[in-house]
Fold these 3 entries.
Entry 1:
Amino acid sequence: MAAARRLKRVAASQPGFLTLKSNSTDLLSGRRKRVNKNKKKSWNKHSDINDVEEFLNDIRHQERTTGGLLAEKSDDSLFFLDVGQPLNDAQRDKPVEEEPVERKKRKGRVSRPLRIDLILQQDSLIPPPKDVLAYQQPNAKKLRRSAQRLEQLAAKGVVPRKQRQLLNRRPVERTTLKAVTEANNNPNRDYYDIWGQELKDLADPWYLQQTCKKRVQRPERLNEKPSTLPAVEVIAPGGSYNPEFFSHQALLKAAHEVEVVKQKEEDKIKRQLAVNKEDTATMETIFHEELEGLVEEEKEEEEELKDEEDVAVGAIVLAQKKTEKQRKKERALKIKEQRRMANRRMNNRQQQLFQLRSIKASIKQQDQKTKVNQIRRKAKQEAEKSQPRRLGKLKFQPQDMEVQLSGELAESLRQLKPEGSILKDRFKSLQKRNLIEPRERAKFKRRHKLKYVEKRAFKEIT
Amino acid sequence: MGGLQKKKFESGAATNYITRNRARKKLQLSLPDFRRLCILKGIYPHEPKHKKKVNKGSTAPRTFYLLKDIRFLLHEPIVGKFREYKIFVRKLKKAYGKTEWSAVERLKENKPTYKLDHIVKERYPSFIDALRDIDDALCMCFLFSTFARTGKCHVQTIQLCRRLTVEWMNYVITSRALRKVFISIKGIYYQAEVMGQPITWLVPYQFAHDHPTDVDYRVMATFTELYTTLLGFVNFRLYLSLNLLYPPKIHDTDIFLVPVQKLSALSASLARVVTSTEEEEAQIDLFPTEDENMEMMEEKEKEKKLLEAQMKIFEGLKFFLNREVPRESLAFIIRCFGGEVSWDKSVSIGSTYEMMDETITHHIVDRPNVDKRYINRYYIQPQWVYDCVNAKMLVPVEDYFIGVTLPPHLSPFVEEREGDYVPPEKLKILALQRGESSGVDSLEEEEEEEEEEDEEEEDNDEEDQVEENKLKKMEEQRSQGKSLQVKVTPGKVKMENPVRLEQEEKAEEKRLAIMMMKKKEKYLYDKIMFGKKRKVREVSFLKSRNKYSLLWERLCSRRS
């Protein structure tokens, strides 16, 4: 309570502080309460020491920042005379020093400290406070004693046990784990006999299965190859670097066939797009088309209209209600029809007995047909196994045949120019054998359309 | 009818398949990651039989996977690694963006990686399965090892591929497994027989080529990742089977780690595991099994011996390669068949002897002329080596001298059937293989013989020729004024050739059978025979054109 009251007092004594109780009239009127300044209690509250405080603060500030009272500083340290650019060398040689510290100027070296460093130097008279805790060490004496003892023992040659053990221990060989050595394509990687040792299962198979640690077996279906084609297809004998004449001709012929097929397709498209020159519209035909139906005679028009009406009338026939007679007749007819059909069916069945031979013959024929179809289907299936399947959006595009024309054949192995790229050949072979799906390079698609904006400079011109 | 109605596309084919995007979402992976996973695990898209059913009525082209396959993929542990990698990339980007370099270092040190060993073991449970699929792996590794190290794909991958291919070539040399070689305009095809499996691979030429842009490099890189792992394991197993040290070391050297360049010289033999005294292998007496009899056993032995002889055709020969010939290919082949080879020091390391060596027997040159010629060696063009390999014997050297027009390089991968056109060069080689002298006369004789053997029905042309010859003779005699000698002379005993008699009997029987055929069957038989005759006619036509036009054509093509 006393503390609170003291706080209030101190706060109240601050200049400009308005208490709740006091109102403006009180302060402005000039009427003051009479206070006894002789008591210590009222000194704190009612004495005004601000001017003294200000003065002292100012002095302290000066001491802290500029290192001493400004009044006590010499003129040289505060001001310098600006005489402008020195006119000749002789004048430059005069020592024009601003800083109190003089340094020898060396050729090419900046020996003078920077002005900013000097400004930021600590030159206050007040030294920084000493950190007492840093000097306090509770067992300084003990430590000093033990250090002395160790020195004496080391001088004698006795080594303490802990250090002896440390020295005896071998340095740990730290194998720095580098990701390179463990990677799959490390050139110096080790191989071992993967098919040799049949590792026995260390644990019980039942245990492994129950705890889901057993490796899942690979299904048998995956061991079959997706295509019966061999991995490496050797090129025809005409593809030798020094081919025999007829085999080379055979290879050229095969390549020629491919080209012919391509040419035929192109021709077909051209033919389909061909337009008869006479069918193009000329000014005359356009004119005629526009005038059609406008310059006809009226008689012809009337006749045409009449014909249409007659046809229209003939189509609308209203249905009339059926009478009883008609219904009975219809029913009788229906029954008769049914009976006739039944008779006929029975007759047919009876007669089939005599048609056994021809029936047998027709059954045989059907059997043969189905057999032939089966064989054909099986052959087709076998053939399909060696063909590239359609596995995705794109169809398999076989690569161009590697053929060198007669004029390109090399004269010697040294002058041989290799044809085709084996990389592409391997890639296509993988696609052909259904190991990967044919793909094309992914195009760069823009998500948002590009905006083209003219620069302002250009806008003025155009 | 209400209640449990069967709705469309809810059972059957429609539920067995799943589209690619759905599968990707099920696995919670991005599209490149999904593709990579499918390639690594060997899951391929399927084309369903009835697209409309599976696609729920629409015919839009979509990629379908079997649902069971995708469910199997869910159990794969490397799926988790892919996700970790995605997060690693995200964190790294953030650290870069905030320029927190210590975080970047820390993240890079702990980069998540995955191994494919378990996938290889799962996909190829036995060694023979892996050998069957090694064709593709070899082609891919050879292809990648020829890439330029620009950084488009990881340089480490290229180095690894180079190392694996060099190891493979060294194995083939040591086991003498090479059988066929073919130089084509695409690259060089090799075929080797490893543990009974024929393995074909294609090696591109070493010249730099610009890469096509429409090839997906990521897909190829993923395949290569799997294939390098596979090839490494296969190499290890093969080296183990031959008792060689793996990683391979060169015989009689103390170098622990042999650099790839030294191995790629292909000129030194590899070190074996057991270097102590070799024990003589006791000849195991082979008893015939129940199915075979002694004859077949002997035949097999003969074949084996023939094969062994064929594997050593270059034994004892010393070769020197000039600077302009493809060194690696030739060195590989020559060493595969037992020969010694060396080259100029400036070409590559590992050359064993110099050009001045007197004991060199064959010097392989590809230039129009050579400055200095030594007496006791043959200067031949490189095609000789390849042709020798394909013919399985040493082909006469005369056709391959410098400046001589080379005979065409035939493909050993072509198997001619009866009645097909056989190029005369091949016939010559067959003759050489059979041990007959190579002359033009014998060639003609052989042609005739082969014709007779191939076709039972004789050529009309041949008969005509014989008749023409007879007529010519008679005309000559008449023109010379001699009268035809037609008089009764004592008969000569005709020696009946039993073989010929048999053949005639068979022909008679055949003729009778043909006469007794029904109309329908005869019609079919006529059709077949017509087709065969057409072939024969074509073959003979080509052969008749052969001698003159072939030469002319070849001259033209060579000169141009």
Entry 2:
Amino acid sequence: MNQNFKMTSLLTYTFKNLPSTSKWALRFCVRPLSSSSQLQAAAASQTKSKKTLAKPNIRNIVVVDGVRIPFLLSGTSYKDLMPHDLARAALLGLLHQTSVPKDVVDYIVFGTVIQEVKTSNVAREAALGAGFSDKTPAHTVTMACISSNQAMTTAVGLIASGQCDVVVAGGVELMSDVPIRHSRKMRKMMLDLNKAKTLAQRLSVISKFRLNFLSPELPAVSEFSTSETMGHSADRLAAAFAISREEQDEYALRSHSLAKRAQDEGLLSDIVPFKVPGRDTVTQDNGIRPSSLDQMAKLKPAFIKPYGTVTAANSSFLTDGASAVLIMAEEKALAMGYKPKAYLRDFMYVSQDPKDQLLLGPTYATPKVLEKAGLTMNDIDAFEFHEAFSGQILANLKAMDSDWFAQNYMGRKAKVGSPPLEKFNNWGGSLSLGHPFGATGCRLVMAAANRLRKEGGQYGLVAACAAGGQGHAMIVEAYPK
Amino acid sequence: MVASRAIGSLRRFTASRTLRCSGYICRSFTRSSVLLTRTHLNYGVKGDVAVIRINSPNSKVNTLSQELHSEFMEVMNEVWSSSQIRSAVLISTKPGCFIAGADLNMLNACTTSQEVTQISQEAQKTFEKLEKSTKPVVAAINGSCLGGGLELAISCQYRIATKDKKTVLGSPEVLLGILPGAGATQRLPKMVGIPAAFDIMLTGRGIRADRAKKMGLVDQLVEPLGPGVKPSEERTIEYLEEVAITFAKGLADKKITPKRDKGLVEKLTSYALSIPFVRQQIYKKVEEKVRKQTKGLYPAPLKIIDVVKTGIEQGSNAGYLSESQRFGELAMTKESKALMGLYRGQTQCKKNKFGAPQKEVKQLAVLGAGLMGAGIAQVSVDKGLQTILKDTTLPALGRGQQQVFKGLNDKVKKKTLTSFERDTMFSNLIGQLDYRGFEKADMVIEAVFEDLNLKHRVLKEVEAVIPDHCVFASNTSALPIGEIATVSKRPEKVIGMHYFSPVDKMQLLEIITTEKTSKDTTASAVDVGLRQGKVIIVVKDGPGFYTTRCLAPMMSEVIRILQEGVGPKKLDSLTTSFGFPVGAATLVDEVGVDVAKHVAENLSKDFGERFAGGSLEMLRQMISKGFLGRKSGKGFYIYQEGVKNKNLNSDMDSILASLKMPSQPDVSSDEDIQYRLVTRFVNEAVLCLQEGVLATPTEGDIGAVFGLGFPPCLGGPFHFVDLYGAQKIVDRLRKYEAAYGKQFTPCQLLVDHANNPNKKFYQ
């Protein structure tokens, strides 16, 4: 099968050089040919379905480089900071890493999920603090766990449409501190009190006070539409795909072990150190803790008690962190003398039932983005999937490998197939590195880009699920060395 | 990693192979034994756990029949005698149903109470054995677990239920006029406490899984799953089985105890209930409440209290004996036969005997945002039907939209809906003042004011904008559909859909077909009604159709009785003590005096002296004084916001005095007054069947009970004739005929039944 695909790509390449042939026509004539066995011998080289994903008349968009501050467990070194502090640190790290002149940046976009009300446009506050020109506009986007993916694709849109040449995209999340509000009743009373002019009016407002007004309102941890927490949904998802506790623990252990190895071997080169005021300089992620299966087996289920399978050890943990990438039009980057790391190619957003398929975004997005790019699973050298829960990853792998699911839920003729694990999240994932909601997308893209450079290979596939039953996938193409 | 995954999958594979093998061994083993096949049950062994799967053939539900019962005993005996098996799981593989209850046909086939008692005792014995099983049995419940199903489940050592909307536990026996006859009266009080047990058995209401968990009725919940590599339902049952097996093993290994931690309140209550005096007080309280609510017309609830009491005070042997005996007695009562008949009728009226319509209604439009229109819209949007609600003025439309919102929001307050679900449902409603979008409507239901000219105008307006296939339904309580359809270009698409107020509470929908109405139009109307959750009767067009026509002569008699000097309060108490849920005078107030007059005038034109009796002058005078009933704040009673006890409207005295008529003592006893009302109702109902307005007696009973509040304990007019005796009714009618005249003349069909005692409406 592999041979066939390779040959297909060889042929595609040949056909591509023929003038005036439409892309569709190409695909159609390639397929029947590729199955003829006599040509098989010719397909020996390592070529892909497509040599590059460049499209005529569309600007090539590149990631010059990207950084992140170390991702830390919530409540550790970053706990006294505010989100824009982390975002600023990521921006400063990016400036340092790329030496990009601040005034070249046309626009800044950041993703975040839990908004600090004081800095609701955290992108702008961080940019000003980092010393970017006050003439550089900035906005903040939110799309749950794919917020920084959205920031990056916003940048892609701005550049592709010719509005900008240089955009900084990033993401930030600080779970050590979240906005806890007064109750609605209390807020109403306080606002009424503000409006009350006379003492009598004030007293009459105050007289309405009841003790239960003081009970605080926490930011929602559950899905608004279904009132179900994500962990609960993940546990049901794992059960729906018959994924055992052992499998989940094994996968989590794999993530931690691979992350540990990557950390030890210095592969996590996107990390920039962060001198936290009043504390030591943070240089590495602190959530990577390879344990043993026995240790993990001792944990009690965290959501569906007492018999569920999702535990603290096989879920991603609450994380503080920020990331940023420098995205440019290729010609601009080259003109400035940069050697970019990767192209950002086709991307796809999907959404589905937020109740029973909350975390299946990657399953839906993967075949679509591959189709759009004209690639197959075999063309991908580096998979970087967001790991919300072990159970979620394993469920997605099973779903992608199921013809029944593809036919009954995705309206496809056949499954796309499950990514080979040897190419999958080889440097750890959100389970071990951590998952600052708004910042994970940029980490995924940089991991894919860096892995392609390090391990060799041309195409990376980034995919993630998000609250609300949404999902995202993007093809990252290595920049030729 | 890859290797470990592969091992994992290999292990699963082997596991499932052994399972299948052991299942196979078991089955072949049973085949070789005396009984060749089991039709309702099969079982396999997983490790040391026997998994008993229930699935009755050729039926949507599992019922506790004698066959299932004996097969279950066989299997359990094998489980108990096998040394390999240490525990068992009992599960149904039928989607949405564990066991829906005992087989009613089995009870109906019994002719004496002894036979029924014997059935009860056999079940009691089985369940007692199950309860005392040394090998723990886990009931894994997905879907309805009612009546005998619940009794089986609570005899097991442990219960796990899916937290699905379809999973409902309950003891609905009381609604059929019987009691739980397989031990529930003895086990439930011990399991959930006396007050909760009474609540379950006396109301018969269904309890959702999460509530059941809180009460201690089930021990664990399992969340329903979404799709995986197979359909949700299938995988959910599998998952339930897997979870149940781990608990069965845990119980056998004594790692889990079936005992449950009780909260402080529960501990206090159970302490209080250990004091005999407190218990006596509870029995007394409950009995008082039951007597007040049932007016002594329903024997079952009192017997339930009695049986529970016997069990607690005199020990379970006495309790079981009492349960089986009372069960036998109750099953032979008229009330039980009537209620079971109604239950069967209700099931029949929840089917579409006209088949699936050619085009399913996806876009509905309702004209008129009044009480009825908005009610119809509400029961449509909450089932996901796109609905346009149209009125002519913004305030009227706004009132209707608010009514729909309030109806949905009340469910949020009761926690049967989430606010998010409410909002999505409310988004199905489009309020507007014009006919935009009607070109896409599949059905239009008009609920404008009851005026023929207005209805004609509306019909013409609507027909100008709707597509050809669109059905035009008229919601009217008395205007003949044929007359409305005279102005239609396509009378085959015109039909009547008579809803009852309040639409979201009243179950009945009366569908009226004219000679010209096509079969597909009827099928479509029934389909929409069923989707709205209604119980449906389909009747022929005619003045007053069926329901209004039956009510009218009774109402005429109500006025006559009032004229004869019986006060509204006395009349109300006479009717409610006969079993009507609402008193006759109150009913007039609720319906609206103007509406009652309008209907009465129209119908008396058509039916003449058969609808004679009271003087319509009373209604006319009430209207002229503004006493329109509840909606105007005054009728026979005075209605005030927030005041629960209603007082008589003293201004009515002069009207009543001015229209006073002498009463005839020999037909004016309390009982005579009751029978004057009921026999007129029944006579008219039977006439409707005789004339072909009604297609079946079942529909007549369902319509009377669910639409008009005919006493459910009598089972509807036709059950009443069968059970009470046609001859007795004819005798009464003749007596009243002699005193009052032709309005009491019994109809031919009723006379035929009286002349031939073998003739029954229900064979």
Entry 3:
Amino acid sequence: MRKAQGSWEKRILKSLNSMCTELSIPLARKRPVGEQKELLNKWNEMGTDEPDLSLFRPVYAPKDFLEVLINLRNPNYENGDSLSFRTHLGLIQVPLKVKDIPELKEFFVELGLTTGQLGIDDSTQVPPELFENEHVRIGQKVLAEQDSAAAQQYIRQGSPTALRAELWALILNISSQPEDILYYEQLKTNVIQHDLLVDSLIYKDVKLTASNDDYYFVFEDYLYQVLLCFSRDTSVLGHFAYNSASPPKSYIRGKLGLEEYAVFYPPNGVIPFHGFSMYVAPLCFLYHEPSKLYQIFREMYVRFFFRLHSISSHPSGIVSLCLLFETLLQTYLPQLFYHLREIGAQPLRISFKWMVRAFSGYLATDQLLLLWDRILGYNSLEILAVLAAAVFAFRAVNLMEVTSLAAAEAVLADLSTLKVMPLLQIFLFATVT
Amino acid sequence: MSRPKNQNYKGHGLSKGKEREQRASIRFKTTLMNTLMDVLRHRPGWVEVKDEGEWDFYWCDVSWLRENFDHTYMDEHVRISHFRNHYELTRKNYMVKNLKRFRKQLEREAGKLEAAKCDFFPKTFEMPCEYHLFVEEFRKNPGITWIMKPVARSQGKGIFLFRRLKDIMDWRKDARSSDDQKDEIPVENYVAQRYIENPYLIGGRKFDLRVYVLVMSYIPLRAWLYRDGFARFSNTRFTLSSIDDQYVHLTNVAVQKTSPDYHPKKGCKWMLQRFRQYLASKHGPEAVETLFSDMDNIFVKSLQSVQKVIISDKHCFELYGYDILIDQTLKPWLLEVNASPSLTASSQEDYELKTCLLEDTLHVVDMEARLTGREKRVGGFDLMWNDGPVSREEGPPDLSGMGNFVANTHLVGCFLNLKRPWIGTPGWLSWLSSCLRLRS
């Protein structure tokens, strides 16, 4: 796995370097004073800038990454020539251990049919006395006690809208201390003083994705403020200790290969890809103060999101998630799975982008936040794979009738009306297995 | 015919049971070529009438109304989409006059507290007749910003901001001296209004809310509130330092469309539901409830203030577009009321909203004589006022004034489930899951 990750990283870095040479733009340069002043003035409205980004391309898109994952093979594993019913017919060919439905039911026990949930039991048909009022009261108590572990347990049943911002901060252990605000201001100064090539990539990504979104366009400026600072934050390098990836290195001009002149590029070691800004966009709904928004995003990234674009064997890593998704589908919806495979529409090709983005930009925001509540509560991203399978199960009837990949994509193009909690509950607890 | 359980409940006056005949087909006429035309054409049993043919239903524009209403005979069943003198509500100078008068009346009858409920309109002065009053107010508040608006224009035309009396002196001089500007509005038809300098901002941008109110009659006053609407954002970041920048301050889509930053794909609109969720996550659900009930108050009081002035012809109904601005203390302000809110869709979502809005409007107008007259909700419309407040609860209206009166409005208070759940939609799924839960 590490080898695969290593070669993937080489590819990305090569792409970045070639773009750099092609466009003759340095990876980093110091801004002249006039430009610094201008940027400082415009800090709150960077979205109004319209730099010429036509020559920039995103370094990679999720589908490129998928191709890499599909080609992963374990050299020690002997698959055997005969096809048995146990053969995995999906795209991922790495035999990692994933949970099956009984294990998932145990793991996600709080999502069961007899337990109250926000996202289901707070709908208007259900009187609030049955669940919602009590749940809100407990939430307030948890916050008053500032009990992080209790908050994590509590949020498995969903967070009330008014309490969510504080609960997430409690679970992620974010408290806005003066040092944190100062740290953010320092990052901001770094942005003002130096211009990085990666900045243009970030701009381009925001313009292509979040700015075009019907709801997130409003937060465009916040996205720049967070992402530009993020790429300069060297404390993020700390997460590489438990990440199979390693940060890309670059060398000072003329000193290629000399380790003393190696620097991590970008400073935080994370090269953004197409859609990266969508990790931040939903958070703008909850946090309005830039330094707090920044901290929350950074913590979410180093705890969860990094696993979605690095190759590892971790159960929450993207490879396991893909395998979990395919296994669930193949085991519990075999007819659908075979049908889609026959028409050349491997399900993972459609659901991969949902999982890589943790469904951001695909679900309605309130539903997305309910989903991310559970990610925090269970400290695992496996729920993304379960949801992806549940979506396929939900639209199975329509999918059985399609005869091409394009038609299958069309059936699954619009997820904005879906309600995630009923889907998850029915898939896990109410389907006959 | 069975007797209604609650004899005191007044129907909303639409149907008289057997007396209203079922028409074989309904002949409609309209000059609008947008969402409205689509809705009318798709309505079963409705036939388009062209040119001089006789019609049963006319969605007219206000200029036609002005010229023809007075000498058009209409049968009892015929419906038309405007009230003869709607401008009492929709022209800014008349609305201000009516509101001021209503406020005085309330103060006399019910005291200062009740009258204060009418303070949702920023201080406004008609030009030029109230010029001196305006100058007095201006001098009492040095340094604040004022906005000058033409009374009868729409889409943001002719509006500008100012802080010094000198600015309007210059403007008056300019307007008078140029004779060849036939298009310019005479100075006499403007209002000067106190500009709300602390608007609520989202993402650093100013926005206003568009809400739809359907009035079926003024005497007695029967009004319906639509459950959805949208927030319109200005494309640029709000700052008081550039009052000349129209694009910063005016949130009409028409103005924003000409801004260099405008990207049609964005549409710069948020559906009200999204707006409500955003506010709730920032300020908590109670604050949001208060805001929306303050808005209810605006709708009702504004309609009451013109109730005695508007000619309440039984053939008329009107769909108003209310423009509301929220300030940083979460107080809603009434900017204006539109008699002809735009029915052109700016995006797919907008198209769906307007289609449902118009379909439901036609359901309430009820040319097909299907309603019983006792409905409190028709499609996305809630009966907000029926010659008195309408309670959400069933049973006799709470006349004592105490007890748990909850107004019958659901401005995005619950999920707007416009379509009945059929197999394969989310509504069906949650219904199914609740069934399963009950069983286990």
